[in-house]
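ugh ok fine here u go
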Amino acid sequence: MQIRDISRLHPELRKIAEKLQQLCQNAGLPLLITETFRTKERQDELFAQGRTTPGSIVTSVRYPDSAHCWGVAFDFCRNLKGKEFDNSDKFFNKVAALAKPLGLTWGGDWTGFVDMPHFEFTKFMPGSSTQTLKKQFVSPENFIKTWINTVESVSEKAKNVDEALNGGDEMTNKEFGDRLTVIEGKLTTIEAGQGRFRYIDENTAKIAPDANDALRAASAKNAPAYGANGFDPPLTIDMVRQVVWNYRLGLYE
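structure:
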């Protein structure tokens, strides 16, 4: 069965797809998303097409080597009956020009198997390969278990928890740490069954790129005073990790 629902995409890619739809609407480009997530049955069916079943070859990979099987790709066409794949006016190129700055890889740029109606999320598909995903998660099922249901709901709930806990007064370093601990507990409860938040990086090196921005943003939300030498007294690495996590969730926006 062909799935067109963007809610079946990775939450980050879902937001990008929504953004692209709006950009295309503003530009007068009638975009229609035709396929998102693919089951094993669907990928097997498409791989057989043009090989062991009638039709033209439409994919070069078996399950689970398509980005669609991992929820990190979608296909599209022109939303105009009879001209869905007409590129005489460079429709696909124009859509791609809007999509690539959003973090998407366009199949129209490939050599060999050119796939103009295809976008995939570059973040999870370096070199347009599923090898990184397979090495880390083994299967699409394991990868999907790490997803948060919706970025929007988590961000909004996180903000609500933050606002409820933050009385607006200056806090001591210990109070700030205690508040972050409570937030973590509340959000884990909110998303019960979804597994531990993947936004919490276990590797300290992974939080470094966002640490300074996160601490400044936290300071603007009545966290301890931030100066040239950082928080005073300094936060522990666990507290910094939680600040970065909250920053990535959008608590300090």
